[in-house]
Amino acid sequence: MIRTLLSGDYPRSRALSVLLLAILAGLALAPFVFPGTRSLDVAAKVCVFILLVASYDLLLGYTGIVSFAHTMFFGIGAYGVAIAVSRLGPSWGSLVLGSLAALACSALLALLIGVLSLRVKTIFFAMITLAVASFFAILASQLSGFTGGEDGLTYKLPELLLPGTKLLQAPLAGVEINGKIVSYYLVFFAAAALFLALLRVVNSPFGRVLQAIRENDFRAEAIGYRSVFYRSAANCVAALAASAAGILYAIWLRYAGPDTTLSLDIMMDVLLMVVIGGMGTMYGAVVGATLFVIAQNYLQDLMKLASDAAAGIPFVPALLHPDRWLLWLGILFILSVYRFPAGIVGKLRSK
Amino acid sequence: MSEPRSAEHPVLQTHGLSIRFGGHVAVNQVSCAFHPGTLTAIVGPNGAGKTTYFNLISGQLRPSAGRVTLYGEDITALAAPQRTRRGMGRAFQLTNLFPQLSVLENVRLAVQSHAGMGMNLFSVWASHVELIERAEHYLYRVKLADRRDAPAAALAHGDQRKLEVAILLALDPDLFMFDEPTAGMSVDEVPVILELIHEIKNQGDKTILLVEHKMDVVRSLADRIIVLHQGELVADGEPAQVIASPIVQQAYLGLVGHE
Ligand SMILES: Nc1ncnc2c1ncn2[C@@H]1O[C@H](COP(=O)(O)OP(=O)(O)O)[C@@H](O)[C@H]1O
Ligand SMILES: [Mg+2]
Q1: DSSP characters for chain B?
Q2: Count of pairs with CB atoms under 8 A, one residue in A, one in B
Q3: Which of its termini does chain B have fewer beta carbons within 10 Å around, N or C?
Q4: Predicted ipTM?
Q5: Which residues of A touch B151 (CB under 8 A)?
Q6: Per the structure, how many domains does chain B have?
């Protein structure tokens, strides 16, 4: 059972297993052990980013493709839901329609980018994806009648998913079971299932070809694998998963805008998460996304505490001011890359 | 021994095949046909264009002029993977492996390609036990079974050459192309490879092209020798006859000089 779920790809480290189980338990029970709007928001974001980062790992870690268009596909998923639901009304039908349209659009676009440009060198491919992604972001902000422009779109969802909907009369374990909880578990289970699907793909005969192409594409071609074909397919699978993450994020936030999905800042975050977690491991996405999202949300609080505590000492409070959080995150990142070039997962496995 | 089969139906044929790199013509108007069940040795001094000729045949390079046909079909426009899928297999002169993947995985990937399973996305690779067993069989044949879990990069040079040959065997091609398979091997490793080539030849239906410097090896294995010199085909015929010809004596001397 577990073997099938994990596709025979175990964590292969006791510490990593414990860490993964802790993350799994934390996310599975989040509404009960971390009640409160903000912590549930963080938990949902962790779920979404685990899926997003894992799909990026399929590209970067397993296939050796550097793409900057990944958040574009994330955005297409989110906007697909947002546009469909705000135009066609908050029904399940429009939610499904928007999701399917977004997935189809992503697959087509990924295939197009792949076939047209995966023949070129890695660095040029990266440049092309950067150009396409920037173009897309501009497009989204210009077509404001359609996308809400810089403000994005806020919309309603089917009633079952709204916070005002009470499912049980009495609270369960002290927590009121409402539409928000339903949304959370929709996000959690969908992200978990799709993560396991990606884990299956990288451990499939197809996934093995991707690793062969990453290692030596010349040789992979010589034994009969057309690398453009396989790279395009990988690009498509990753784009679909990224769009699915976008769809889940749009369901959770009931909002889609440039800053939550399309921006290149998020692309950088994803890149950091995959590197910190450990490239080409899939489990690195879980660890990297969890740590990063938590740091992003709580580092500032922690720094405020530290800054206040250090009041009176020269320089230190300024250094610890919450606005400096990105600086500290940057330092953490450099240290972790320097100390653990194979990421946290690589480090834990090498012990 | 059987006569070379009907001349009208060669497995592989090159027609006026040429390639130039800048001003340098590395392969010049080479026309040659290769028949099923034969082993043709390709000899010539270093830089004669043997490896380049192989690259043109297996699709790593596109010719400046000329054509390649496989079973009479023009394959000049096909890329390397497509030619491999049609039954060509190549072992490279400069060892060319998947360095971080295990020895077994290097071979298993070739078996998987031959089985046409590359686009299988939703099964676990390890569940295809038959592919793994076949890969193990080929490792056993080149006497590398005990190194199956080592990364390819960790092998000694001679073992990497054996792995190169195991990958070729795993493709189970109709046309085998060996580019100096024993170069750089220690004396006691060479017989393993020669024995394998012998076995393939004895199957009777396989076509083998062998680039080889060692004349005793060529003499014992080849049905026919062709000589390349400065990109041109300068001699073609029975081994004894070709080796005795003045032009080869000259080229062969040059070749000895390069060894
Ligand atoms: N990709 C290339 N670019 C430029 N010159 C090349 C290339 N490949 C081979 N050559 C040249 O073509 C000639 C033939 O090389 P090669 O086929 O490797 O010879 P051989 O295998 O007979 O020793 C050499 O002069 C070599 O320098
Ligand atoms: Mg050569």
Answers
A1: -PPPP-TT--SEEEEEEEEEETTEEEEEEEEEEE-TT-EEEEE--TTSSHHHHHHHHHTSS--SEEEEEETTEE-TT--HHHHHHTTEEEE-SS----TTSBHHHHHHHHHHHHTT-TT--SS-GGG-HHHHHHHHHHHHHTT-GGGTTSBGGGS-HHHHHHHHHHHHHHT--SEEEEESTTTT--TTTHHHHHHHHHHHHHTSS-EEEEE---HHHHHHH-SEEEEEETTEEEEEE-HHHHHHSHHHHHHHHHHHHH-
A2: 97
A3: N
A4: 0.91
A5: none
A6: 1
